Amino acid sequence: MVPYPILLVEVLVLGFSKWLNKVMNRNALHKTILAERSGLSVGSIESYLRAEYEPRMSNLIAIVAVISIIEDRSPTQIMFEAVVTLPEMIMIEERWHKKRKDPSAGQL
Fold first, then answer.
1. pLDDT digits (tens, 9 = 90+) for 14-28
2. Angle of CA points 103, 106, 108, to nearest 5°
3. Contact indicator for 64, 75 with CB cutoff of 8 Å
4. Spatial contact of 86 and 54, defined as CB atoms under 8 Å apart
């Protein structure tokens, strides 16, 4: 099993579509099965896999629910791994690191 901190670094670098592709490959999970079990359309899953769109929170929850059952893992842990790959989270993390490097950041 891969240690948790390594997973965090890995998903931050990969992005959501690559993370989803990797999870699906690891579990031999076909897009039609994921769509059927999550209640989403195959077209939506394909769009996420091709990085055309990021999932809405409700769709992300549905995907995480399926993966957590397949992997017998906590949905909270899987959700965390998925959310940190979203562009908004990557941007805010980069902004936080940038401000920490600037000693005058946050000072009035």
1. 589 999 999 999 999
2. 105
3. yes
4. yes
